[in-house]
């Protein structure tokens, strides 16, 4: 297993759209295993493949309700209720920055697991927030993109100090 390097704000790969996974082969399983190790080592809630420099639609996370590790392959979500909720978010790719983000409170998730089984389930609260945050990554979107222009302006100085290749100064 390997602890992977995390791409930081400013890195182009965080702005690209990840490609669907065609075959869940040994290589994909190894990436997932490495992503879990990286997630745990950095005490993150979730991690998308873009964040470790891989443009494939893969997400790993720890379900905050059950503490269970989950790997999603080609995940998608849709809202089931227009209700949104504000909650604080941070991101391993945007170190040192935390801000409140408005997200759908309840969503329906469709994904494949590592065995290639199709999963279809509802998620709410923090789990729904993590899933929306991670699938945003697969589409080249960061949580800071979802903040108001005023809030982004407040954070601009901090953002400019993030070193793309290393850690926060
Ligand atoms: Zn993130």
TrEMBL record:
It catalyses: N-terminal N-formyl-L-methionyl-[peptide] + H2O = N-terminal L-methionyl-[peptide] + formate. InterPro entries: Peptide_deformylase, Peptide_deformylase_sf. Pfam families: Pep_deformylase. Keywords: Hydrolase, Iron, Metal-binding, Protein biosynthesis. Its cofactor is Fe(2+). Fe cation binds at residues 91, 133, 137. GO terms for biological process: translation. Coiled coil: none annotated. Binds 1 Fe(2+) ion. SUPFAM superfamilies: Peptide deformylase. CDD domains: Pep_deformylase. GO terms for molecular function: metal ion binding; peptide deformylase activity. It comes from the Bacteria. Its EC number is 3.5.1.88. The active site is at residue 134. The keyword Membrane does not apply. HAMAP family: Pep_deformylase (MF_00163). Belongs to the polypeptide deformylase family. PANTHER family: PEPTIDE DEFORMYLASE (PTHR10458). Removes the formyl group from the N-terminal Met of newly synthesized proteins. Requires at least a dipeptide for an efficient rate of reaction. N-terminal L-methionine is a prerequisite for activity but the enzyme has broad specificity at other positions. This is Peptide deformylase. It comes from Candidatus Atribacter allofermentans. The lineage of its organism: Bacteria, Pseudomonadati, Atribacterota, Atribacteria, Atribacterales. The gene is def.
